[in-house]
Amino acid sequence: MRTTASRLAVLFAAQVLLAAQALSAERDAPSPAIAVIVGHTSFVTDVSKDQLRELYLRRQRLWPNGARAIPINLPPDSHVRERFARLVLGRSSEDLIAYWNARYFEGVTPPVVLPSASAVRAYLAAEPAAIAYLPVPDVDASCRVLLVLGE
Amino acid sequence: MLTNVTANSTIRVAMKPRPRDPAKLGHGTRLRRRVAGVAVALAISAVTMPTAVRADSNCALRLRPVPDPSGEGYAIRDLGLWLAGDLTVVGSVPEGHAASIALDDLDLLVRYEPFSRLSLFSEVRLEETFRVEDDEGLAAGSGNLSIERLYADLALTPTLTLRAGKFLTPFGLWNVIWRAPLTWTVERPVITEDGFPDHTTGLGLIYQTTRHGWTFDATAYGPAQDELPLRSESEAGLMFGGRISAGHQIGAAYAAIGANGAGFEDDETHHWADVSGVDLDVSVAGNKLTGEFAYKHLNGPDVSREWGWYVQDVIPVRGPLYLIARAESFHGRRGRPITGGLAGLFWRPKSYLVLKLDYQFADRRSEDDLQRGLVMSIGLFF
């Protein structure tokens, strides 16, 4: 058992080192800030980073007024989505696999996906309960910015 | 996705009970059949009964978001319905015993959200349909049909939910997600199986929030153990418990720690038992380290205790291939303690297919817990 425990410890330490290296490489690459947005007709006037985490992990599924919250994600291969996950959820998409497995077991699935910035803007304009994120340069006058992340 | 049900969509559900001869049925059987009927009807009625979904000319319907590819199951958004299922085939080659292969589980999950604040959930499971043993050939298994879960969630506020029905006891990490295709290994650690009742029937109050980057969860539940089994062997008796956990990002890692406590009537001795435990969950770069410890104290004339722990590391190798290492120990109230672990592989080449291969080892041979040898499984989602 002692051997098993030491092997586990070595493997885990190696993983931590690799993760630290990956993160340091990521910090070197400049990325645009991310704006958290709603449509202009939305009743949502403010949102905190903590509340965003609850919404995007589907732990909180209602707005304070009782309306069903609709968080919108970008596609899984989007760099913006990965950065948003790290900034808001505190984990990479890979680290969230086990989390979503557990939620799936309760019938709760990840936020829905729209394929592009223009689709996100158009959806927000029509759905007041929706919330999304886009790189700041992709935000136009049809959206209301609630929060800017990673400035 | 379920979140897209329009607020003023209406869904009429009518359930017509089947005529039965009450004289021929015992009270328990009638209750179980009624409960089973509700679970199955929940799935069927929402699909087949008349619905009046408002035709919405809103352009939101033309720009419909799609489910995330990492999500599973089938969502019928206008009905607020989500359906999913899976089956698991398990093979084992234990040391000193005959090899076997069995269709272990067939599960159907249904979630129905008629209103934004209310959701209904059921899991019906068919167990051990058939089994083929090396020296005995094909044999019919128990074929038990069980209601694994059947509950309603009412969101009292965005952070507080009232749960009523039968649900998995929220004790530790493993017990709330032990369905075979979703776990990293074929067998669960012994302490998560033997320490406390798997199911609670009654009420649960769930509080979830994030404050200043810290994620907090608190759950209280009771008053009964598994009372809706739909099978002969059942746990019964009072049970109360609670769980609190807190999680936070630490550098590149996300760590969560939990504390659990429960009191219940032991199904063997019928005396009061109390169990407490702690758990740890650390994620970093796809690597997942988890561990649980639980201690159980049995009251009554035959005072005894049992305790155990496990530590498990899941290491990403390449793509959807993971290596799993686990060490565990269990000190039961009878017999000698057992210590061992496993080394395993978890591979999910497609979103609907999970393959697992584990080699289990232990410091002594056991008939029940932690059998030495090779175990493997194929899990299919549908």
Molecular structure report:
The complex is a heterodimer of chains A (151) and B (382). Chain A has five helices and five strands; from the N terminus they run H-E-H-E-H-H-E-H-E-E. Chain A has 151 residues and is of the alpha/beta class. Chain A is 42% helix and 17% strand. By secondary structure, chain B is mainly β. Chain B has a domain at 153-381: Beta Barrel (Porin). Chain B is 7% helix and 55% strand. Chain B has two helices and 20 strands. Chain B has helices at residues 27-48, 191-194, and strands at 10-11, 51-52, 74-76, 81-94, 100-115, 118-133, 137-140, 145-155, 160-168, 199-211, 214-224, 239-250, 253-265, 272-284, 287-298, 304-318, 321-331, 338-350, 353-362, 373-381. Chain B has a 16-stranded antiparallel beta barrel with strand order 4-5-6-8-9-10-11-12-13-14-15-16-17-18-19-20. In chain B, a hairpin with a 4-residue loop joins strand 3 and strand 4 (81-94). The relative contact order of chain B is 0.12. Chains A and B meet through helix 1, helix 2, strand 2, helix 4 and strand 3 of A and strand 5, strand 10, strand 15, strand 16 and strand 17 of B.
